């Protein structure tokens, strides 16, 4: 490059007149271009600049890149643009290389492309510009469908691009490019191709580029722009590297001082503004020699312009009165290096002052927009693009908007086909809003962000890698479900992901998405399944046995018996894992329940099933039975079901379909009538308020009124295009219809038009009456909502949605209007047209909405195949999954308990919103701190801090409330016969009760609070421990047998040995062993802090003590310490022996449970809880462990440390968990003041499951004949 003449005076205007003679066999340009190589500088005086028309808007870009429309303000790069112009004419492939912030994208977008267009004015020049993002083929596909360009391909033309094959790019050109066209393909930020993209797609995309480049088509050019620090990646792709090496690499260097002067002065001069003398030189001196300064320079100049705009003109806009950009203002901004840092800090501080979570929200936003790339040369941060719907919550979106408005983040649109977005209409492209950092210079210029990146570096790398892997898995699962397991996480990477998820490391990045959690859970499921298969294979390998011994075992049948047991259990577990995948997927819930019943019946008959296998099956079936909401599936339409409605009495459902029919169903899923008569697909159906008339709307431009016998009463004609929506007025005398002809019509029941409402500019999608019948609301493709009176006058126009408004409804009280849109949001409005709430959560267009009749719930249906239920505060209550395609329509039953959904998968689904209710014991007014089963499992006792004890049956009914105590109840115990309850109280007394709630005895004698109470194994003796430093033994005749003294401090724990002959007590750091005569046998010392729990092993030979010193010690009966169990990092809250006495479980505040053998070796660490664990217990058969945690969950584990199930439902921390003596029920006590009973009784679960599914199994035409009889041998609910 020849260096420009530096002797240029201030305020020059660059007159770009070049002469490039292009000869040879070109030719990308159709003719030679006559311009001058050198740049002619025309001096313009300051006076002339300041007297030309003043343009008030800033001519500087901030940190955003220059684009195609910015050519007239893009100065200082003429020499490089000329060089690139010549290179593109001579070669089919060019690589523009530069450091971050060097301006490589801007040079191509605002320099090269406009010059090429100008030289090819007589030709059809098409530029295709895109960045690879997560999928380069998807990005190319969306580029081809862009509505902003002068080309426009149909989706069917370019759909093959998404297949992502080696020849996709050459095929695109040969198939769609016409001979007279010149194609310029610009792939910006090419480095993104090497960031977490599917290797197969990466290779295919690069092969396509090299094929086009090698072909050398003179009418096609490919230009790549890439950060220079990624050039090493080319070495891994031989052909791409060879092409680049053929003089096709063009380095973007820093600007010369004179070029810098042009870039600084000329934009301002073009708008009629000059710089104070000496300021331009000061700026040049500050930035010269610095790396990546151009975006900072543009940002500072833009801020400087805004700062000088202090005078308000008559048009309300501010401008620069003296037409001068001054040194003082520049200095106040902090100069080029300080301006961005200072401004971002100001914005960030303002956000934090307004919102207490401002720091976390800002951090989540920016870290979601960054990736960390690791290579041999080190790690570096790069910008990544995220979809707007990844940012959830009003506060997050408001913060996002602030940064977008400040031009620090950029909001763009990507175009995508979302199937058919409007019923019966041609496919339309919608725009997915994306967010990205305006320029990567922000990553190195904002100190706060730099520190966040350093802190969360590992989590960012892992999170973005996980997102890429999840997308790949989801895509494979959609295309070929049988191969999806091959894409799941495995090995150490899965362990690392689980570790980060368990410690909530991803929360600082905005958390994991629902799909990412599903991906992880499916990976864990596969890991568990493979473990089981591995264990199964091990039994087939008989190590160390001679051939004769093997033959001998086979002959005796022992080997075969063992192998058969293992095979049966492995098969059942695999079936159960497959069922879990089905349940967690988007498959219909009733399918999962049907399979669950089948497995449940199979395991009941299988005598060789192990207790663990039975628990796994029962636990999953319990989750399905108590979690299912889909109650029936109506499946006799032959095309999309587009609308659904309940009759006013709730006994009949009407469904309208694109198959041109309406079907009337009873609640059992049987078709009562099929209404035929329309000649095109139906869009809407409605019952009259008296339930005697049905109205239907169709794309045949008519409305039909029917009686319940299926006869047409009236056909209403008058709309010029298809009718999209229909509704009756509350009094039933008027019908309103909306149409694709942009109008709404009001009709009387005789079929006469009363009013035609005109005002919308495009199709009206939806119409609704207010409950009082005086107002009509309409929603349209023109992105607006209109409110009308009955005279057809517009009362209000509501704006706020940024895409089609798909559906509208009034709340039952008429005070709120709810709308849904293709912009993925739900909005609630008051009658004055103000937005009350914006509900976000759907990942695709929201197309249907309904209020429950009681007004408490809003239901929305989406293209994302889900229905969401919201409360009036905008919080998601439930998400209903199981639709195969988009949900077109939603209707509530009159009692608000059932919703019907109409789907593009040709079904109507009925959802019972109550579901099967988990038995919850409510009635305590304070946190429940203890729960216990009677020995026969028929009665439950609960205690709280409100001085009461409650006795319950298994149906959740209170049998008795024991309220005789005058102070807090500290401890409660059943005697072994389950007919007596003992309670210890803070008022120094112990009370004995019968099950009728009567006090049998009151035991007095302690001088202070009684901490603990326990019955001897034979039930004849009661031991109590007190703060008065004593232990007392009592018989049931109220007599004190013995008072045990010897502890110097309060006694906080007491227990009997299994044979009832020894009592162990704890106070402070010591434990004492006593005989029944009250003599101390042994004193156990060794803990350094308070001992809070003592337990005997089942055989009575070992004692385990847990202490605040974070250890558990094992002792023999002679008081000798056997082992000290260390490893917990926080205090231990609970300990338990397995039933065989060989395993000890310890639960800790450190979020883990550890399993130990009697030699003190840790066998397994159970990880999965996200908060401290308060309680651990073994099942009666010793095969299952239950844990209760502050994270509001109970988890079930096997002895290998694998989580079998997680039980959710409590709203606060869970204090205690216990098994019933028959092992069929788990009870959990929580600080949410409730106790929940978790039912694992397989017989009862099968009864409940069959009761739920009977109508579906009997009446659904797609249920197999075998499954129709699945529940014939299972009775009704007990």
TrEMBL record:
Transmembrane segments: 539-561
Domain called Novel STAND NTPase: residue spans: 59-478
Keywords for this protein: Membrane, Repeat, Transmembrane, Transmembrane helix, WD repeat
WD repeat start and end residues: 634-668, 675-709, 716-750, 757-791, 798-832, 839-873, 880-914, 921-955, 962-996, 1003-1044, 1044-1077, 1084-1117, 1125-1159, 1166-1200, 1207-1248
Pfam families on file: nSTAND1 (PF20703), WD40 (PF00400)
Protein name from the UniProt record: Novel STAND NTPase 1 domain-containing protein
